[in-house]
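Ticket #4471: structure output looks truncated?

Reporter: J.K.
Steps to reproduce: submitted the chain below (200 residues) through the standard prediction queue, then opened the result file.
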Amino acid sequence: MKFTNKNVFDASKHTIEPEACLKERQKNMPPIILDIRSQDDYKTSHLVGAYSFPGEYLKENLTQIPPYAQVILCGDGDNEQTLGFVKLLVDNGFSDVSCVNGGNEKLLAALDASQDEVILKSLPKTEWADKIEGVLNEKVRPKLAADGGGLSVLKIEEDKVFINYEGACNGCASAATGTLNFIRNTLSTTLNHEIEVISA
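Returned output as attached by the reporter:
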């Protein structure tokens, strides 16, 4: 009988291709994507929806990351270094962690090459309002309606969306923070553009 040490870190099980990462973030429960490069590198270019969390701060701040969420780390292309941070998370009980093969540069190249992704800034601004309304109808309004709520759009000014809550969302405490963040994140990641959502 062959003995297998299940405690050995297998890097191949913790690497995700850029195209697969893009598909993962379109799920109902998208992964948390942490950009572990420096804050300066993050400001220069990053995947919309990824959080800046420089690798040097991971060890001291593990409690800020949900341990049972899917977590994807995006580095500078040095898979070996990024996998070291993946191993740190795995060793600390995180159950679903991977890194983007090739890092941020490959991820953004996959985004640009994708036929399935909408990149709002590449479209004429006259089409932006329709695209934003489409995402609200497909991904946001059904979730709000499931809890007895809704929203109406007061106006759209380029990448600013002014909304008014309806039904159970109107006056709900979480509408000011959690729901607003959900709407903003859904619009931003689906359209690959930072969208500001303002509640009236």
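Triage note (M.O.): checked the attachment and the full token line is present. The mean pLDDT is 91.
Status: closed, working as intended.
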